[in-house]
Design a protein that fits this description.
This protein has helices at about 1-5, 15-40, 55-75, 100-130, 130-135, 140-175, and strands at about 95, 95-100. By secondary structure, the chain is mainly alpha-helical. About 20% of the residues are buried.
Length: about 190
């Protein structure tokens, strides 16, 4: 039962060297950069409450979750040669098994839908609990606040960079024609 509920998280188990850049390295760099900028501003940005960073992110996640679910449906029904073939080069693997383009994209958009809905509810809970959280955070050291912001932004940036990866496949890779060998015409016939 639990494995069915968390099936979208299987995306994290997919192994490929390039995938780590979209899942970990770029989101981590972006999260640290944005956190540093936010903490360096002379006038602080509201992180919680009305007109805050979390409010802005929740508005975007509300839209994106529908996009991800629609993308998953499109990938599942897209009829093009090559969707059910293993991906070019070294294909990504899940549990040691290579994935087809359709498999990879279904896991990718399933993960994105799951994470956007999860983060929407996390952000919603934070927004509803803002007075309690603010009370607890009064005496918390600035470095702890920085770490909590960086963790939140890491997940948001992970969603964004993984979205870019999915868009790359939907824009370019799905529609690219595969090279085919054409038999030369014998002029003696």
């Amino acid at each position: 039962m639990i494995s069915k509920l968390f099936k979208p998280m299987y995306y994290l188990g997919i192994k490929h060297t390039e995938k780590r850049w979209f899942d970990v390295y770029i989101p981590m760099l972006l999260a640290l950069l944005v956190s540093i900028i936010i903490f360096s501003l002379p006038k602080p940005i509201a992180l919680m409450g009305k007109g805050s960073l979390i409010s802005l992110v929740n508005g975007i996640l509300q839209i994106l979750s529908g996009f991800y679910i629609a993308s998953m449906a499109a990938v599942a029904t897209f009829q093009k040669e090559g969707m059910d073939k293993y991906m070019d080069g070294v294909p990504p693997k899940l549990g040691g098994e290579p994935l087809t383009r359709r498999n990879f994209l279904a896991y990718l958009f399933g993960y994105l839908a799951f994470m956007s809905i999860l983060m929407y509810f996390v952000g919603g809970f934070i927004q509803l609990s803002v007075s309690n959280i603010s009370f607890w955070m009064i005496d918390v050291h600035r470095s702890v606040k920085f770490i909590l912001l960086a963790i939140y932004l890491f997940v948001v940036c992970n969603i964004l960079t993984t979205t870019v990866l999915g868009m790359h496949f939907l824009i370019d890779k799905i529609h690219r024609s595969e090279a085919k060998f054409i038999e030369p015409i014998d002029k003696n016939d």
